[in-house]
Amino acid sequence: MRLLIIEDDREAAAYLVKAFRETGHVADSAHDGLDGYALAQEGGYEVLIVDRMLPKLDGLSLIRSLREQKVATPVLILSALGQVDDRVKGLRAGGDDYLPKPYAFSELLARTEALARRQVGQGTAEETRYRVGDLELDRLSHRVTRAGREIPLQPREFRLLEYLMRHAGQVVTRTMLLEHVWDYHFDPQTNVIDVHVSRLRGKLDKGFPTAIIHTVRGAGYVLRVDEGAAG
Amino acid sequence: MSASAADASVPGETGAARIQKLFRTTAFKLSLAYLAIFALCAFLALGYVAWNARAVLDDQIVSTIDAEINGLSEQYNTGGLRRLITVVERRSREPGASLYLVTTAGGDHVVGNVGYVPAAVLATPGQSETRYGRNDSDAEAHRAIVRVFTLPGGFRLLVGRDTEERDRLRAVIGRAFVTALAAVVILGVIGGWLAASRVLRRVDAMTQTTRAIMAGDLDGRLHVAGNGDELDRLASSLNLMLERIGELMRGMREVSDNIAHDLKTPLTRLRNRADEALRRASSPDELRAALEAVIDEGDGLIRVFNALLMIARLEAGGARDILLPLDIAPTVRGVGDLYEAVAEDRGLVLDVRAEDGLIIAGNRELIGQALANLIDNALKYGATSHAGGASVTLEAWRMGDSIRLAVSDHGPGIPEAERGRVLDRFVRLEDARSRPGFGLGLSLVNAVVRLHQGTLRLADNAPGLRVEIAVPAQAAPETGDIPDAPPSAGPVPAPS
Q: Does B441 touch chain A (CB under 8 A)?
């Protein structure tokens, strides 16, 4: 994945570039809004990570300008502002995801990968059927089967699995699940998401020798077939 | 009044400055204004009296003259000029006599008790007021009202009356006038002075107290004399204000103390873990485990800061514009759905009951978070298995003009005395100390409720705690498109 980090705090930008490179990605950085805008326009990036407050051209204006220029590269907004409506403003300006500072790198990585994947899969986004290994989910009939055996799920469990399967092979964080399945952006204090995932896991894995939902310590969950075939 | 209040002038003040200050007081200026009005009234009243008295006396003089003239004209008619002269001569010598004068056409004195009178007066018949003399030596010493007649043969007859009495009365009235005015002015100034210095003394006392408070004596309060006057009322409301400010200050101090104290513990723990890992860890796995623990600890701290910032922002009240018409019934059910599994996992039952169509001006995210915090608390502290019933209930219903939300549990509850306190930041009751958390949950809920112009009440659920929230209800908009789940970052098509 090739990404551009537009962040005026040079130390933070350097840390991100290094961290992304260590996880096998290609990352460039720009330190003010105008440089960032020029680089982003040249294209070639799969995801842009944009700090909200930038010198010369602020983050939201930068995103708006890019969108006006028909640059559709997914944008993840980083913001030190945690106002309740900041997320809405950021998304309205054309951002695709929003992460308030301070954040864990694992969270940023998972979200960035999800955005890049969305970009790639754009044309086939309306798939009606997901398949990972022997697990199948039909979005039209709301049926889930594993190795041909039907697994009855609650609507909420269905949406949870749907999201995990859509992002199969990618790490999905707890807050991403809370956002997309329950549509809340706050931080649940207890392990609410873990409970839901472990119930789903219980239903999916019951009677099968291999687990399909895996916990990634310090980050979240990933749905994949253990043979390493998925990716 | 106490000695300190009497001696309340600000230290270092010169006498002149104090007097100047006295002149500038409202009390003194008011006194002066009243004084001017009163003096004017006195002036008008006395003037009226003086004018009337003079008119009465003048009338009296004129009628005396008329009577004299009537008498003399009778004498003249019966005995002619000679008789008139005889009568005039006699009357002139009587004690308290009027003024008489008969002259020739040339003005030569014939008979009478008037020594001198201006020639012009004698030349013009009719009534006039003039100076005259008793004899030639005191030419114009006296004043009189006189009437002059021309008699056959060119003789002139002057009959008049001295006005000395009238003038003396006028002088008396004039003196009374001046004395009274002087008294009014002097008493007025003294009165104003006294009133002003009394007010000034109290204001100075207040100033001194406020300066002491500014200098750091936050427990100082203004003296209230207890007579209920305007200064007392001012002092009372200032005292109330000071009380409120003091409360806020204490709150602030407590908050910052608590922040320092409560964050020190996890920071120390974090530091110690890193330190221990450096010293002890022998394998990469151990190091990794230690680092992960450090990160967890750091995440906890970030969470605390986020919560603190959020509370501060909500309390600043700048976020009012994010409140939109919202049906909270789906929100309540959604949060219930989120936590039901957690409750079950702990062997508890979360019972969710929400009426339909509960519309408020609200923010779904904030209401959701507040409910999540309450349920989280209930599950964490309040829930013990309750035979045959729900361990924790989440209810939402409409009651008159307000929408009510309640989260109840059957745990130990919160003693009545502690209920106000637990809404503050970082307050954790003794029982809760051993469990994870920072004591910010209820503070956040309270801030959210206040942003929604609602009220939060902690009640006894006998046994357990019942947190009840009342938020003003809104009329359902006619379009009926209340967003239950607004579009989010990554739209996930909901199963129909």
A: yes
